[in-house]
Amino acid sequence: MVKKYILFVMGNPLLDIQVKADENLLEKYGLKPNDSILAEEKHMPLYVEIVKNYKPTYVAGGAAQNTARGAQYLLPPNATIYVGCVGNDHLGKQLRMAAEKDGLCVEYMVVDDVATGTCAALLTDHKRSLVANLSAAEKYQLSDLKSPEKWKHVENAEYFYISGFFLTVSVPSALEVAKHASEKNKVFSMNLSAPFLAQFFTKDLDALSPYWDLIFGNENEAEAFAKAHAWEHEEIKQIALAIAQLPKINTKRQRVVVITQGADPTIVAYPDGTIKEYPVIAIADDEIVDTNGAGDAFVGGFLSQYVQGKSIEESVAAGHWLANINVKQIGATYPEEKIAFVPK
What we know:
Layout: E1 7-10, E2 14-20, H1 23-28, E3 35-38, H2 44-53, E4 57-61, H3 63-73, E5 80-83, E6 85-87, H4 90-101, E7 105-106, E8 109-111, E9 117-124, E10 127-133, H5 142-145, H6 148-156, E11 159-163, H7 171-183, E12 187-191, H8 195-200, H9 202-208, E13 214-218, H10 219-228, H11 236-244, E14 256-261, E15 264-269, E16 275-278, H12 294-306, H13 312-326
Parallel strand pairs: 1-5, 1-11, 2-9, 3-10, 5-7, 6-8, 11-12, 12-13, 13-14
Antiparallel strand pairs: 2-4, 9-10, 14-15, 15-16
Helix pairs in contact: 3-12, 12-13
């Protein structure tokens, strides 16, 4: 009998290699202090250098998997399932064990010809520069998703979340899930994930946007999306509203746009013109350990309540709460001893 997981998440599973870096390292590899990019050939020596010359911390990551673990952290057992591709190697086995330790069910596609993907996470002054070498993660295939074992999980789920990063891997897989959600009146959510996606994968984002019931992003990603579409809007609130008012296929529910802004209030926009702001939880600089994964944690917290039928206000509050916990940890991790979220 197939278990019925309410939340189905799909993305690029990666092993994060985190180090405390400096501006010189970023400059050497042409990196920005608060950005996410895909590795090019010139970045390959970076992975060797940070392991050799810095003190790395290894975390089971990939944006969508971080979010899935965050959601499961606040959900009852066996609520979330995650799909992606890993290599048939030690790193892939490590990822599986780490995810399952967090209570997450993973149904990885496993390939023999390439290694499990990695991500260099360079931390500088409460900012993070992410350089992802997808490797096995980019081998995911629609045929795996459509296999009877995997597709049964899609049919059983009621909520779906896919990171924008996944569009660099398998747009057909993302579209298949989006169309299923729309046809069955289920909730389909995505994340803008990084400015480069709006810039270089505009057509792919636009192919998915009519299916968005929930769309997440931060202020930099929202600005990049507006720029890619030559919108004149410069204020984040107006960009969020413009995204909310994009054409939508399933008209049985309105789209909700959620834009985080670091320490500034989170913006939620609706197509009817309603825009709301929600202040984040204040935190002192000396309490911040690592902001890597805070956005993923926010979405995980948000979804953990939303899939239980809670309000947008309660969902945002849970997102802020989990992100606040996350920045006090190293990497996109959550305390081993579970802390219950109690709405105020």
